[in-house]
Design goal:
This protein is α/β, with parallel strands linked by helices. Helices cover 45% and strands 13% of the residues.
Amino acid sequence: MYPVAPSDPNRVIVFDTTLRDGEQAPGFSMGVKDKLMIAHALQGLRVDVIEAGFAAASPGDEEAVRVIASEIEGPSVCSLGRCVEGDIEAAARALEPARTKRMHVFLATSPIHRAAKLKMSREQVLAAADRAVRFARSIFEDVEFSAEDAIRTEPEFLVEVARAAAEAGASTINLPDTVGYSTPGEIGRIFRILRKRLSDFPEVRLSAHCHDDLGMAVANSLAAVEAGARQVEGAINGIGERAGNCAIEEFVMALRTRADVMPYDTGVDATQIMRTSRMVSEVTSSPVSRNKAVVGRNAFAHESGIHQHGVLNDVRTYEIMRPEDVGAEASELVLGKHSGRHAVSDRASKLGFVLDDASLSAVFADFKRRADEIGEVTEKELVMMIRRRSAPVRRRRGEDRLEAAQ
């Protein structure tokens, strides 16, 4: 029923919604083949749950869920659906081949959603949630219920809805910050209240689904875990509706890097993060920002001379994660206008050149002038500078790289 036994108090389930919430964002639509390719990458990443789509949304989405359910082993395959029988039946058809499966039903609970979208009273929302979860449980062993816009829902009513879903048989209760409105302190209080009020349902797992409209999706997800959530929902590269979801790679590496203050584990193989990130970026034609945490091009790159000097002496001076921990290449010292003598000397040495002080000073002066003009200096240009300014000794072990630079 569960990907991991709920009795493990420090284990956090990673629920990936790249293929559902991520794909719903404008410009991120994916075909069946693309979805399947990413699903296999997520299987290699060892996420616990793959939300493969919204089966009732379109024939194409139902087909994508069915294909993924047929091929994926390990993670539980999930489909989203509204609290209506037709959506649950469509998900059941699509998920039929899955080795392990989950039905995820949702219903809005906040006052603004009840009035403006659903035109339903509190009593009607409670009845619909109870009816849908019970119907889903008649088909699926594992049912998740989401109270859409939970953070803007009256706390007492949120407790009522969560208890109704738990009593109807939901194994996971998700409290989404649907519009990215919450703060870490607030969401922590909400999860602590729910955990206490659901103490008579110890088998029910609380889940966080945070959006990034105010830039706090990862921070809010971490706060929810500290307050009792044992599932976090997110997407690779943080893609998703509007400003996106909690970025899975950031959440996972935050737990790993700060295990001293957050002693929680995931089953994710972090060495597959960079590969998966690049695949999602390529499939969605959405380049990852250079300064994106964990997977951005600059995450393990340094141009500042002070930083480069520190990294050359001990990489831990400016890097809290190792590139290989996330499947990235080695740290990069970018040769630019902020670089210092140590970086230029180190790169020259790696290219096979030994420079005396006078030669290094002359090369460095040329390098600074050129860097001011173009920003980043390539190895090829650096070699040309060295040859103009010195009569260097070429180390044999550097010959291959030197030839490549030419």
